[in-house]
# Entry
Amino acid sequence: MTAYAVPTLSPDLAADRPPRPVPGAMRDCRSHPAKPSHQEPLGFPGELVDGWQEVAVARLGELVARYQSLQVFLDICVKCGACHDKCHYFLGTADPYNMPVARQDLLRSVFRHHYTTAGKWLGNLAGARPLTEDVLDEWYNYFHQCSQCRRCSVFCPYGIDTAEISMAARDIMDVIGKGQKYTNEVITKVHDKGNNLGLSAAALRNTLEGLEEDVLEDTGVPVKFPLDVKGADVLLVTPSADFFAEPHVDGLIGYAKIFHQAGINWTISSHASEAANFALFIGSYDQMHKVASRIREAALDLGVKRLVFGECGHAWRVAYSFLNTFAGPWDFLDPRYPVPQHIIEVTHDLVSRGAVKLDRDANAGVVATMHDSCNVARAARLGDRPGGQFSLPRELLAACVPTFVEMHPSTVKDKTFCCGGGGGLLTDELMDLRIKGTKPRAEALRQVVEDDGVTHMVAMCAICKSQFTAVLPHYGFEMEMVVSLHQLIGKALRLGAGA
Amino acid sequence: MGAVFGGVMSFFDAVVGTLLVFAVGVLVLGLANKVWVYAATPAPLRIPTTPAPLTRLGAAGRLAREVLLFESLFRADKVLWALSALFHAGLALVLLRHLRYVLNPVPWPIEAIQPLGVLGAGAMMVGLAGLLARRLFLPSVRMITRATDLAVLVLLLAIGATGLVMTLAAPADIMGLKIFLAGLWRFAPAPLPDDPVLVLHLVLAAVLMAVAPFSKLLHMAGVFFSPTRAQCDNARERRHLVSWARPLDDLRPR
# Structure
C-alpha cells in the first residue's frame, strides 16, 4: 500500500492553490494497450494499422463533420486558462498536460495542422503540429488521464467540454488499432455475457438467491431479488458491481427493500444485467448504441412497463441523456413515468407520498456527507427541475440519517470533483494517477471529518464507490466510510409496517 | 506634404482602401461561412452541461448571460473575468462610438455615447494589458500561450493605442475620414486624410478583421453554437436523432 507516492493533504483546499506545473510529471503513467482480442470483437483493428497517420487524420475529419461539439470546440478556445486549475488530475499531479486546455491542445494542434488555414500557414506559431509517433504517444498517455468528468466545461466561458475531445481522441486511437485494454475488454464482456464482469445468468441467479437469504436472515422479511420475470412492472438495470462489490451490494439490497415495501413488481434481466456503458468512454456512437440496445431488447422481451436505473454515474448519463436516442422511442412503456427513471427518483417519490417510511434512528451515530457523482451532477438530471440531481439525493439522505453535512461549496454539486477513477481509468496500472486524482476530494472530505465529525461519505455511482474504497485508505480514511445512498435508505426503511 | 506627394499618396490611398474593403469582406464572408458550418453540423447526442434550462427559451437566456455577463468565467476566475469584462465592454463601447465614422446622419444614441468612448478605450487597454500580463507572468497560462495568442493581444493593444493617440493627442481629420470611407462604399474614390497614425490604425484594424475567421477570434461566432450551453435539457421528453445515425437505428428490433 505504501508503494505509491500519496500526496500530502493540506488543511486548505487544492482548488485554492493550483500547483506550479511540473512538465512530464505523469509521462510514464500509462494504461495497458488493448490486445487484438480486446480490439477485434468491437470491430477495431488488432494492432496499429499501416498508414495510421492518414487513417487517423481522416477519422478526425469525419468526427468533426459529425459532431457539432468538436467542430465548435476545436475552433474557439481562446486559451484563457479559466479551466487550467479545475481538473482534479492537474491539481493532484501538476503535470501541465493535465490542464484541460493543454489536454485539448494535444488534439487541437493536430486538427490545426491538417484542417485549418492558420495551421497550414503558421505551423507551430499557431500551435499546429502534424500527427507523429510522439504525438500519438502523448495522446494515448494523456487522453487516458482524463476521466471525462466535465468539471472544466462548467467553468469554460464557451462551455468547451474536454470530455468530448478525449472521447474523440480515443475513438480515433481505436480506429487505428491503438485502443485501451481496460475499457475495450469490458465492452467485449458486455457483448458476450450481458455485463461488465462477465457474469453468467446462472451465476447471477445464484448471487441473487444468496442475497434473498441474507436479507431474510437479517430482517426476517422475505425480500425478493427477481431475475428474468416476464410481465414484471419494472425492469431494474443496475451496474453489475451492485451484485458483488462492497458497498455497492448494500445499495442493491436497498433498492430491493424499497421495491418490496412499495409493493412494486420488479425484475432484473440477465440479458441486460449491466447499466454501465463503457462505450461512452471511447466515444463510439456505434458501440454505445449496441450496448444500449440490449436494454431495449430486454424491456421488449420481458414485457415490462417501466425502466429504472440503479446508482451509477456514467450509466445514468447514457440512460438519461442518450437512451431515448439509442434505444427509444419508448412508446411501449407506461407513459405515466419518465423513461428511464433513476432509483433515486422512484424512492424520492415514494418517500414524499408517504408510501414508504424512513427512520433516522436506524442510522444512529451516522454523520453523512455527499459526494456528487460527476456524470449525475453535470451530464444528467434527477426529478423534474434543473438541479434535482442535487436536491433529491440530499433530501433522501437527510431523511435517513441524523446528521447531514455539506463539503466545501467549491467541491459539491456542479463543482464536484471526480472520484479520480471515472472515464475508463478504474484499472490497477493507473493507481498512481487515481490516488493523485482523488486529492481534491480527499482534502474536502478531511475538512468535514475533522470539523464536523463526518463518519460516512455517500456516493451514488459504482465507479465512485470502487475508486474511493480502493484509494481513500491511502489517505488514511477507512474504506467502510464509503456507502451507497440506498444502503443508508435500506437501513432506515421501515420494512413490513403497512406496505 | 500632401501637395508634393499627392499622386503617390492617392495610390497609397487606394491600397489602404482596397485593404479595408478586402478585410471587411473576409470578416463578413468568413464569419458567415463558419456560422453556416457550425449550424449545419449535426449534434447527435444531448450534452448540455447540467443543471441546464429545460426549454429552448431558457437555453437562449443561459447563452445571453454567457455572452453578456460571462457567467461561467465569473465562476471560474474573478480576476480573469474582470479583465475580460473590461476589455470586451470597452471594445463594445468603442465600436459603437465608431459608428459615427460610417453613419450619416449620426443617430442620437451614437452621438450620446461619444464622451463614454474614451472611457471605453481606457477600459479596453487596461483589460488587454492585464490579459497580456497574465500570459507573460503566470507560469501555467504562459505554458498554454502560443505566438498567435500574444499576437492578437499586441494587435489589439496597437489598434487601441493609435486610436487613443488620435482621440487625446493628435485629433484625426474625422470629416476627411468619413468622406474617404463613404467613398469606398459608394465607389466614389476620395483621398485619405494625410495622417500616419490614422493610416496605421486603419491598417492594423484591417489585419485584425482579416485574420478573425481563421483565428481564435471565432469564439465570437462559435459560442452561440456551443452545444453544452445552447442545448436545453429535454432528452427524456424528446427523442433526438440525426440523419447519419439513422441507419443504425433501423437495424434494431422492434
In short: Residues 194-405+454-492 of chain A form one domain. The mean pLDDT of chain A is 96.
